[in-house]
Amino acid sequence: MEGRQAVRELLIAGRRTVYELLVAGDVEPGSTLEDIVDLADELRVPVTPISAGRLESVARTEAPQGVVARAAELPDVELEDLVRPAVRRGGGGPPFLLAVDGVTDPGNLGALLRIAECAGVTGVVLPRHRAVHVTPTVTKAAAGAVEYLSFSLVAGLPTAVTQLREAGVWVVGLDADGETPIHELTVADAPVCLVLGAEGAGLSRLVRQRCDVVASIPLHGQLASLNVASAGAIACYEVARRRA
Fold first, then answer.
1. Between the CA of residue 39 and those of 3, 12, 19, 212, 221, what are the distances in Å?
2. 10: burial class by Cβ within 10 Å (0-12, 13-18, 19+)?
3. Does domain 4-71 have CATH number 3.40.228.10?
4. CA–CA separation, 224 vs 164, rounded Å?
5. How many CB atoms lie under 10 A from the CB of residue 142?
6. Single pTM value for the model
7. CATH 3.40.1280.10: which residues of the chain?
8. Which tens digit of pLDDT belongs to each residue from 159-209?
9. Assigned architecture for domain 79-243
10. pLDDT digit string (tens) for 84-117?
């Protein structure tokens, strides 16, 4: 885990064991890094000061922001577990899932996960092949969102879509030429899974065929599309709005 916000949320969430914190150089009083070190001390997580150069050599992202945490892996859950009603911020309700179909850019996936967590998504479905997984770059871009989301890694997304439908979840694909405008989606307050396609290519043929609905975001400017994170933000918050 790298980046100040991501590491801070890692410590606050307490979801997984943190083995060590590596902190670069002098920590300025009142800084976010000082707060992180204080949190680590409270949780009895070892803090190791190292040089900025050494930290850069250990880090896997270009800008670790002075802190790297070594922690246990995120737990992986079964797909059927995501379908169960989830408790979010004091309330219960039907599952609100997000699936990504071939997204390969870690920055985009990280942004999507941050958006999803803020919008109330309860679980994320990631394909095992031909897609980016939760890497240090993704966790940094997600700014701590990974600590509050449940993840299911599936062998094939088309099969997972079929399983979700059989479990009573409405599967809504998002594509530029979808037949239903996202603002007219009528199933948003039911158990639902939004499926976002890859950058450029969109939804794969098999996934698209197995969705209950393929929705689109109306565009009124000259550009032909939104990037996957922007499209995901609009779609997630449209579902969240209808559930409010």
1. 15, 8, 14, 45, 47
2. buried
3. no
4. 31
5. 28
6. 0.91
7. 79-243
8. 999 999 999 999 999 998 899 999 998 887 789 999 999 877 789 999 999
9. 3-Layer(aba) Sandwich (3.40)
10. 866 554 456 789 999 999 899 999 999 999 999 9
